[in-house]
């Protein structure tokens, strides 16, 4: 089966799953998807819907929006503009090679919580 151009998403999901110390089967169960389907997503063979991405995000305990951006469903710049955030914060965190994906997610989560406190 040919790759659908979602390899970056698949690699990202695999890394998040490994950092969460979850097996493929455990994440599939938590997300309510089949083990083979999740494996195909991680290998870039399937392009999941927004609903499936949301379920996977819950299983990984990360932001669904992060997965939407990785999957090309949501434009990161539009997301930041829509939320009234100054451009560049997400980009700076994502571009920092000195941070792990888990650290990046933690920083983004903290940033989002501060933004919600200050309307």
Task: Provide an overview of this structure.
- With 119 residues, the chain is mainly α.
- Helices cover 66% and strands 0% of the residues.
- The protein has 8 helices and no strands.
- Helix 2 packs across helix 3 (35-42) and helix 2 (24-31) crosses helix 4 (50-60).
- The termini are far apart.
- Residues 1-5 have low confidence and may be disordered.
Q: What does the largest sheet look like?
A: none
Instruction: Provide the residue-averaged pLDDT.
Output: 82
Q: How many H/I helical runs? A: 8
* Total strands: 0
Summarize the structure.
66% of the residues lie in helices and 0% in strands. The chain has 119 residues and is an all-alpha fold. Helix 4 crosses helix 5.
List the helices and strands and how they pair.
Elements: H1 7-19, H2 24-31, H3 35-42, H4 50-60, H5 64-71, H6 76-82, H7 89-95, H8 101-117
Helix pairs in contact: 2-3, 2-4, 4-5
